[in-house]
Structures are given as structure tokens and as C-alpha cells.
Amino acid sequence: ERAFCVCLLVLFLTLPYVNLLDRDTFSKSDPICVLYVQGVGNKEWREFGRTEVIDNTLNPDFVRKFILDYFFEERENLRFDLYDVDSKSPNLSKHDFLGQVFCTLGEIVGSQGSRLEKPIVGIPGKKCGTIILTAEELNCCRVIMKITENFFSYSFTICHKTEVVKNTLNPVWQAFKISVRALCNGDYDRTIKVEVYDWDRDGSHDFIGEFTTSYRELSRGQSQFNVYEVVNPKKKGKKEKYTNSGTVTLLSFLVETENTINFTVAIDFTASNGNPAQPTSLHYMNPYQLNAYGMALKAVGEIVQDYDSDKMFPALGFGAKLPPDGRISHEFALNGNPQNPYCDGIEGVMEAYYRSLKSVQLYGPTNFAPVINHVARYAASVKDGSQYFVLLIVTDGVISDMAQTKESIVNVSSGHSVLVTMIELDGDDVRVSSRGKYAERDIVQFVPFRDYIDRSGNHILSMARLAKDVLAEIPEQFLSYMRARGIKPSPAPPPYTPPTHVLQTQI
């Protein structure tokens, strides 16, 4: 079954629409791609392998494949360096550097269709193009890595071609779906160019005209803002009275989002954590390094965010007195907005956490049930299994509302995953029960942070170990939920094939 299990991955890496620098004067580049992986503890980059060199071409198709171990619960950093090979020397410093791409293996696997587009960077002041990385399973969690590159001399890359509507001057083209990443790589203001042709059977299609727009403009939907004049630049330059070759009107625009995991964070702001101004506090606001809560949030969040498509995380606090009236809350938004508690990525969660520390008063008691029920309310609205909810509770001590917490866990065990740092709630040996009713599944994972502190003071290693065990049970929790409801994995997307022409976006 396809899910977040421990896998061997063979990645199909494709790099279409790469406009790399051509460093050769009298011929085209001879590209090679070098893959590096980063060590967990020392953060050193180690060369994993190289593709073969493709001579004198702007459209290389690399044959070399790479096999990597993939673990959902670990952050696996990758680096792809591109070079123009000028000699037979294996020393990369002897060749022209064309740029590089950084990503995690989780980013590739967690992207829609396991297809990730990233900009190529590394040469100041130069646009090095983009790289598209795709992962595909092979034989029960085995996937192959393949690299191909295409170089184009123009500044727009083609991303969709409509069907031909014959024998009419008023065509209505069918609606089509395209990912935001493929259309504009998430840049809502990137220029999108649309070209219109008169189709001929012999392939000599006549250019009618073009217009430009953007995702932001298209998102307005059908309106006066989305009626475009189709202009032929050559005709406009030759004919003074020429205005346009017609108009194109947008009939509909719909954005669909697909989330696999919805990740929510809840943080313990009770007084038992100690005064944040004192070094002994777990909430100590150290200007030079992360405190215990910060390390836990960063370690787990940086991995989970690769599997959340919008990377917007609700972040809650509990057990504090809130300004201005000092009311005690066990379910408050860290960003101060209860109607919209979402933070932008794990960095946004971290910022909201440290801002809250400066404004709230640590108090008590330690009640978990309100934040569990908070996530349950959101999850209850999703009936088709398309979204899976994970709640990470970071706490320091004993639960005050044990009975209510157990009841909440039993009630939501039919649909959601909850991570709680209390050993009594860990259902590995005995499932949690309340009023004689047992939890349908083991949906609780207990991980004591103190057990993961590296004795040598290597916080990076501590964070990696912590994240690995915190996330270890999510794959089986996810699968047990899907199995219980007979929900099958979505069919694999068709193999990626580069489009030919018509709809283009600017690089």
C-alpha cells in the first residue's frame, strides 16, 4: 500500500524547461548532474553519485539512476549540482558550474504527484532556470531516480496546449486543470503568455496573436478584467489602424486544493514550565539558541511541512492568562487571531510562539481536551478521507483533565491522529479507554523530550532523533484509518510528458 512507510526510493528526476547558462563558446554545453546528501549530525555534504555526461546538447536525457533510502520521519537533505564538463578530469572544480538546487527527499515525495519544481541558484546575478524533480515507487515502496534536462533559448516555458476547435471564428475551449506550480511556480504575479493559432492539417499553423495575464488576474474569474485583446505584434508594427485580431474571454476559474496531512501544533503555557526569563525554564527566551520547545517544534515541523500542500499550520496555546483581562485559556491562537490561527510554515509557528511568550502569563492547569476537540471539529467536516489531521502537543508535565482527555481521544480515534507527550495515553500496549469504551485505533504517540538530548551538546542530532520517534507511528496510524474505511490510494498520475506549445509562462 502506498503511504508514508519506510521505503527504498528510486527517483525519476526530470528537469524540463531548464535554461542553464551555456559556458561553451563554439558549441553547446556538455552537462552533468551531481547528487549530494547531507549528514544528520555533522551537516557535511557527501557526494552520492553522478549522471553520465551528455555531449553538446541542450536537451540531455540522463540514463543513470540513483537509489535512496526514504524515511517519512527523517529529514533527508539533497543537493543537485550542475556542471558543463570541459575535460575528462573527475575534479569538478575543473569544469564550469551551472548552478545548484537544494531540497529534501520529503519535499519531492510530498508534492502533488510527487513532482517538485525548484529554481536553480548559485550564480549571483544570473537566472539559472528551474529543475523539476519527480519520485515514483517501484515494487512496494521502491522508486528510481532518473534525470533528464531540456534547455530552451526562449524566456517562456510551455505548460499547456488546448484542443483544436474547427471551422469557427468563435471557439469555446474546454476547461482544463493545471497545477499552480506548473503554471507559475507559486508566483501569482508571474507573466503568463497565451498564444492563439489557426490550426492547419499539415502542421503549418498560422499565428493569430497573443496576450499576457497572471494567476492573480485569472483568479478574479469571469469579469471585465479577464477579457483580453489578442494582438499580433508584426501586424501592429506594420498597420497603423490595427488594434487586435480578436478577443479571448475567461469563462471560469476554479482553484482546487489537495491536502494529505493537516498539521496542528498545541503548546503548553502552564507555569510549571518555569519563568521564561530564567535559564532553567523550558520556555527560556535565549537570544542565542532555541529553547526546548523551539527545538521540538522545529525538529518535527520541518519534516511534516513537506507533506502539507499549503504549509499553513494552526498553532494553539493552552494554560495561560491572556491580555488584556487576564482570562485563562486552554485553546488560544498563537498568532492572536482566533478566526484564523494559521501560521505560514514552521517558521511562522516559531515566530508566533515567541511573540506569545512575551505577551501571555504562564498559568494553568494543564488541560489537553480543548485543543484535541479543536482539531476534531475541523476534521469532522472532512468525510471522504482526503485529509488526515495530526495534532502535536508539546508539554512539560502531568495532565489535569485526564478523564476529559481520554474521552476526547476515544471519540476522535475513528478519524484522526493525535500526538500526545504523556506515557499513560500511549496506546502501544493498551488502547486508551473512557467510560468502558476503547479507542478504535492507537492514535497517540508519547515521546519524552529529555530522552533525546545528546550528551555531547549536538542539538542538531538531538532534534533529528526526536523527530524520528515522534513521527514514527504516523504511517501505520494513517494506513489503519484508510484500511478501516476502505479508502484506496489515489491512482498514480500519468507519466510526465513535456507539452508542445500554446500556453507559456515566463521563467
Automatic annotation (TrEMBL):
Gene3D superfamilies: C2 domain
Database matches in SUPFAM superfamilies: C2 domain (Calcium/lipid-binding domain, CaLB) (SSF49562), vWA-like (SSF53300)
Protein name, per record: Copine-8
Signal peptide: 1-20
Presence of keyword Cell wall biogenesis/degradation: no
Keyword Nucleotide-binding: no
Assigned keywords, A-Z: Calcium, Metal-binding, Phosphoprotein, Repeat, Signal
Task performed by this protein: Probable calcium-dependent phospholipid-binding protein that may play a role in calcium-mediated intracellular processes.
An example Gene Ontology molecular-function term: metal ion binding
Pfam family for this entry, one: C2
GO cellular component terms given for this protein: plasma membrane
Higher taxonomy: Eukaryota, Metazoa, Chordata, Craniata, Vertebrata
SMART domains tied to this protein: C2
Gene, per the UniProt record: CPNE8
GO biological process: cellular response to calcium ion
UniProt xrefs under PROSITE patterns: C2
Family from the record: Belongs to the copine family.
PANTHER family according to UniProt: COPINE, COPINE-8
Domain C2: start-end pairs: 1-118, 120-228
